[in-house]
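Q: Given only this backbone (126 positions), what sequence would you predict?
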């Protein structure tokens, strides 16, 4: 079978393919090492809470998912749940209430998760 390109072109293509195959093997080896080490990292925490509102709106539902829909929580329970992910629980708690993910009693002792419709109306108002 005769190719319509020069031998040097074929040689360069073969070299490039071998180099790519070598890089792919190295990449796969690194990825396997990373996957082996990842389960050993226990509960990665959020380091910085987003300042911009759009990013905040993306992070807060993840915090809200930590709370059950039909359960009341004391302030200490809420604090424990939030501190597992981010150390400043007061900020997160305030945003969860402000954005309508959580509600609290008038005396501030009990918290509970809001239903989806109320959350969406609160987000659209902001």
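A: Predicted residues:
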């Amino acid at each position: 079978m005769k190719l319509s390109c020069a031998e040097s072109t074929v040689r360069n293509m073969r070299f490039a393919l071998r180099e790519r195959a070598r890089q792919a093997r190295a990449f796969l080896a690194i990825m396997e090492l990373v996957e082996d080490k990842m389960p050993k990292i226990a509960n990665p925490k959020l380091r910085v809470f987003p300042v911009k509102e759009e990013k905040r709106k993306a992070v807060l539902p993840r915090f809200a998912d930590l709370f059950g829909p039909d359960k009341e929580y004391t302030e200490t329970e809420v604090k424990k749940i939030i501190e597992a992910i981010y150390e400043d629980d007061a900020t997160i708690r305030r945003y969860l209430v402000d954005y309508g993910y959580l509600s609290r009693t008038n005396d501030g002792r009990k918290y509970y998760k809001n239903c989806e419709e109320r959350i969406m109306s609160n987000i659209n108002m902001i």
